[in-house]
């Protein structure tokens, strides 16, 4: 976009379509970084809550471009609602929208149901001979995907039960989700790549974990 062209023919380029949950997380991460310089702290907290929800949602979901696009649409709707509430009732009223960023939200449930109705029934698909291999490959993709690079994911600490640490609990905003597939514990140390990823996604380690 030419920022020096003020004519009517100049406009924003068409944004690329979301192809996965990683694209949505990257977009929210960029918005969060931008907001830290230009938005109020309450607005930044709202963006952080939205990003945290998407990350947690992606942790429990299969790689699904259709659902990722629907989730992007749903997040957009919540940001629009935040803006409208801000204009009509002020910032305190707008921040209440963050309570809607949950799996039980009616609109999200409807979108999720519609996403399932578009897919062919699994009963009509034959099970391939290498199904177990495919399942294992999916689990690896689900854990790493486009969100965490494989080399960084390999450095994430393991808990006593063998589960990977949920990195968000070490970050400045923390983690508000207790029922996660990942473990919640304090590791003895953190690899540099893991620290860098926490800084990129959540703005760095919280004061409680800066000594790691």
Written overview of the protein:
- The structure is a single chain.
- By secondary structure, this protein is mostly helical.
- The chain folds into two domains: 15-119, no CATH class; 149-212, no CATH class.
- It is 50% helix and 0% strand.
- It contains eight helices and no strands.
- It has helices spanning 21-38, 41-59, 65-89, 91-95, 106-117, 131-143, 150-153, 192-202.
- Helix 1 runs antiparallel to helix 2 and helix 3 (65-89) runs antiparallel to helix 5 (106-117).
- The chain is globular.
- It starts with 20 loop residues before the first helix and ends in a 10-residue tail after the last helix.
- Mean pLDDT is 78; it is low at 118-146.
Topology diagram in text:
Blueprint: H1 21-38, H2 41-59, H3 65-89, H4 91-95, H5 106-117, H6 131-143, H7 150-153, H8 192-202
Task: State the main characteristics.
212 residues, mainly alpha, 50% helix, globular
